[in-house]
């Protein structure tokens, strides 16, 4: 296919410096991903490459410009996300992007950075129970916490409850110093990071003190009914079958529950079944339950994380094949 040349004209130069990035780094990022050549000229950008690639480049530039016009920043991660979505066939424009795919919080508007993230956000918004399964760096924990914040701000839930198996294979909290929250805080740090990234720090502290945001170790959830709440169980691959059933049956009226974890990172003793793996199979197809399964292509941290995950998956696949041949 022969190259085409197209020029996109922006109305003003406002936002273009932020759109192009320092030393045109955002343009270079798009060029590398799509094998196109982008040349900024005043208020326009000339694009050269194969027709489909030029189409995607223009969609990404327009979407990122719309994001800046709406008062949001554009980072290399946002550029990467726009590229992933465009290549995945997801509509990008600020005006035509489905509202179910965006999360509005106090400090920022969060947009999905991969087609699976878009599906995940919509699933949480539209279902009572969602499983987010996949490797580190895919945003499953961050997006769940951000959705909890958004729903609390909208008045759809009264509180956010964060839970996690606090200590691998046992949860012996008594051996850790401090009060209950101090014992489990280190294990819930990823959830706290998401809260402070989406809410004003003083308000997070105030809500923690009032109990509207609650830290509830998995071992202490038995016997409760969680109503009018957004409930997150993180690192759920380390919950046993009994713990998972107990936790799932805590769901009360007008609540959302998100279960996140990586089935490839189970720390339970050998021979103990992961409650996450079991539950995601048992509940498949149940009304009100949806499963979002992330993979290495959804990793949105540093590009090296994607390559690390792929390398481990390849090595583990080889080990599985070797074990099969040895059997």
Could you characterize what this model shows?
By secondary structure, this protein is α/β, with parallel strands linked by helices. It folds into two domains: 94 residues, Ribosomal Protein S8, Chain: A, domain 1 (2-Layer Sandwich), CATH 3.30.1370.10; 195 residues, P-loop containing nucleotide triphosphate hydrolases (Rossmann fold). The chain has a six-stranded parallel β-sheet. A three-stranded antiparallel β-sheet has the order 1-3-2. Strands 4-5 form a two-stranded antiparallel sheet.
CATH class of the largest domain: Alpha Beta
Tertiary shape: globular
Structural class: alpha/beta
Task: Label the CATH architecture of the largest domain.
Answer: 3-Layer(aba) Sandwich
In DSSP terms, counting alpha (H) and pi (I) runs of 4 or more, how many helices?
A: 12
Q: How do the strands line up in the largest sheet?
A: 8-7-9-10-6-11
CATH-defined fold name of the largest domain: Rossmann fold
**Main pleated sheet:** 6 strands, parallel
Distance between the termini: 50 Å
Can you count the beta strands? 11
User: What is the name of the CATH superfamily of the largest domain?
Assistant: P-loop containing nucleotide triphosphate hydrolases
Count of the domains: 2
């Amino acid at each position: 296919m022969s190259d085409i040349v197209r020029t996109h004209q922006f109305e003003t130069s406002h936002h273009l410096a932020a759109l192009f990035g320092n030393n045109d780094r955002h343009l270079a990022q798009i060029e590398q991903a799509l094998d196109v050549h982008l040349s900024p000229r005043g208020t326009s950008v000339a694009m050269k490459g194969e027709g489909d690639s030029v189409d995607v480049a223009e969609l990404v530039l327009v979407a990122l410009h719309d994001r800046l016009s709406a008062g949001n920043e554009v980072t290399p991660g946002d550029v990467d996300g726009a590229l992933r979505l465009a290549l995945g066939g997801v509509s990008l424009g600020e005006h035509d992007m489905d509202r179910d795919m965006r999360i509005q919080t106090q400090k920022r508007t969060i947009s999905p950075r991969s087609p699976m993230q878009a599906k995940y956000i919509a699933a949480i918004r539209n279902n009572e129970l969602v499983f987010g399964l996949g490797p580190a760096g895919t945003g499953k924990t961050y997006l769940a916490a951000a959705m909890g914040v958004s729903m609390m701000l909208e008045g759809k839930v009264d509180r956010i409850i964060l839970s996690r198996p606090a200590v691998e294979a046992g949860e012996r909290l008594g051996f850790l110093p401090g009060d209950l929250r101090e014992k489990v805080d280190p294990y819930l740090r990823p959830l706290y990071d998401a809260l402070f990234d989406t809410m004003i720090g003083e308000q997070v502290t105030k809500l923690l003190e009032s109990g509207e945001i609650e830290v509830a170790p998995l071992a202490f959830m038995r016997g409760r009914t969680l109503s009018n709440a957004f409930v997150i169980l993180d690192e759920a691959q380390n919950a046993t079958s009994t713990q998972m059933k107990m936790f799932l049956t805590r769901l009360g009226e007008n609540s959302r529950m998100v279960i996140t974890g990586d089935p490839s990172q189970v720390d339970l003793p050998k021979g103990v079944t992961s409650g996450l793996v079991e539950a995601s199979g048992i509940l498949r197809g149940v009304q009100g339950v949806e499963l979002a399964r992330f993979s290495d292509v959804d990793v949105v941290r540093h590009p090296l994380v994607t390559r690390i995950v792929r390398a481990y998956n390849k090595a583990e696949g080889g080990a599985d094949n070797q074990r099969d041949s040895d059997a």
